[in-house]
Specification:
Helix content is 33%, strand content 27%. It is of the alpha/beta class. The protein has two domains: 151 residues, P-loop containing nucleotide triphosphate hydrolases (Rossmann fold), CATH 3.40.50.300; 79 residues, no CATH class. Helix 3 crosses helix 4, helix 3 packs parallel to helix 5 and helix 5 runs parallel beside helix 6. The radius of gyration is 18 Å and the shape is globular. It binds adenosine-5'-triphosphate (ATP) and magnesium ion. InterPro entries: AAA+_ATPase, ABC_transp_ATP-bind, ABC_transporter-like_ATP-bd, ABC_transporter-like_CS, P-loop_NTPase.
Length: 260
């Protein structure tokens, strides 16, 4: 399997009330093309900081990030913009990526408006019309055309997260980073959203980084799992090896926390 993302010795500290907090410490991993890597850890373990660094929303203190062989941290301006189209994100709170004052189709189509030259293969026939492209994207995530003109507040949490996923896949990204995409949802809806993400990943051949504090959710979508604690990776294994005897004690604690 070719590597899509390669992360080497990434570290990031913050200053909080005059003292140094190490959010990410010497983190290295890679993700193969078409693979889903799960990232699990308790609150404050550095998961979102790592995601934000990958998305160039935060700068690391040191380390190296390579996407499809291209070093990311040195990129600026149009080169950074060009790479951004290949890395999209779905956050825990769908309202963060949906404009409350616009009908949903406008939020879904926004990335395509920002990159007019991009036409992913699944939108070839509808790209001429922004509304038709939005309708196609909504259909892909299980929302009918009735939703085009709804406002976010007129939708359920699960429907909003579906729309956020439609937006996330709209450019046909190489890498989709999902940061706790099901954590704000009802348990019954969580399973549907996990299934949708799995289906989208397979259909579009996307590579995923799936972040959650819920190790059961992570295992259900991921090929491999890395476990973070206090900014460091403390365990890494294939998903099917989650219950193996040589799992780190901390990983076992996360497993026990689910069954409690
Ligand atoms: N902008 C910031 N300024 C100062 N400290 C920060 C900042 N962002 C994160 N931190 C700190 O870095 C550490 C890691 O936070 P991070 O949000 O990455 O954790 P997380 O694993 O995503 O947690 P959660 O599961 O609650 O989302 C925490 O101690 C947090 O307080
Ligand atoms: Mg987080």
């Amino acid at each position: 399997m070719n590597r899509l993302l390669d992360v080497r010795q990434l570290s990031k500290t913050f200053i909080q009330n005059g003292s140094v907090v190490t959010a990410v410490q010497d983190v290295s991993f890679d993700i193969g093309e078409g693979e889903c890597l799960g990232l699990v850890g308790e609150s404050g373990s550095g998961k979102s900081t790592l995601a934000r660094i990958l998305l160039a929303l935060e700068r690391p203190d040191c380390g190296e990030i390579t996407l499809a062989g291209r070093s990311l941290l040195a990129l600026k301006g149009s080169a950074l913009r060009e790479v951004r189209q290949h890395m999209q994100v779905v956050f825990q709170d769908p309202t963060a990526s949906l404009n409350q004052r616009l009908p949903i189709w406008r939020s879904v189509i926004e990335p395509l408006d920002n990159f007019p030259q991009v036409t992913p293969s699944f939108l070839t026939e509808v790209r001429h019309s922004r509304r038709a492209a939005a309708a196609r994207l909504l259909e892909m995530v299980g929302l009918s055309a009735d939703f085009l003109d709804r406002y976010p507040h007129e939708m359920s949490g699960g429907q909003r997260q579906r729309a956020a996923i439609a937006r996330g896949i709209s450019l046909g990204p190489k890498l989709l980073i999902c940061d706790e995409p099901t954590s704000s949802l009802d348990v019954s809806v969580q399973a549907q959203i996990l299934q949708l993400l799995k289906t989208m990943q397979a259909q579009l051949g996307m590579t995923c980084l799936f972040i959650s504090h819920d190790i059961a959710a992570v295992q259900s979508v991921s090929d491999r799992i890395i476990v973070m604690k206090g900014g460091r990776i403390v365990d890494r294994f294939a998903s099917r090896q989650l219950m193996d005897a040589d799992r780190d004690e901390y990983t076992r604690r996360l497993v026990d926390a689910v069954s409690e």
